[in-house]
Amino acid sequence: MKNYPKQWLNAAGIRAAKTMAQTALSMLTVGQAVIDVNWLNVLSVSAMAGIVSILTSLAGLPEINATNTIESEER
Questions:
Q1: With contact defined as beta carbons under 8 Å apart, do 52 and 23 qualify?
Q2: pTM (2 d.p.)
Q3: Coil, helix or strand for 38?
Q4: Phi and psi at residue 26, in whole multiples of 5°?
Q5: Are 45 and 20 in contact (CB under 8 A)?
Q6: What are phi and psi for residue 64, nearest 5 degrees?
Q7: Domain residues of the chain, as ranges?
């Protein structure tokens, strides 16, 4: 039980980072020049996606089971 907060933060952080990367990637248009990208908008929307991901993770993470261990460690 004492490792649960650390495991939760790790799993939620990984999930949020992936969500932010996917959001940033989805905002880039094929054929768009680097200088034409509104980077502030990309960063802003990606940060909001990360916050929403963390808030969603409060409802529970399937990566962490009821015994407070990461499921991949059981395999």
A1: no
A2: 0.77
A3: coil
A4: -70, -20
A5: no
A6: -115, 120
A7: 4-70
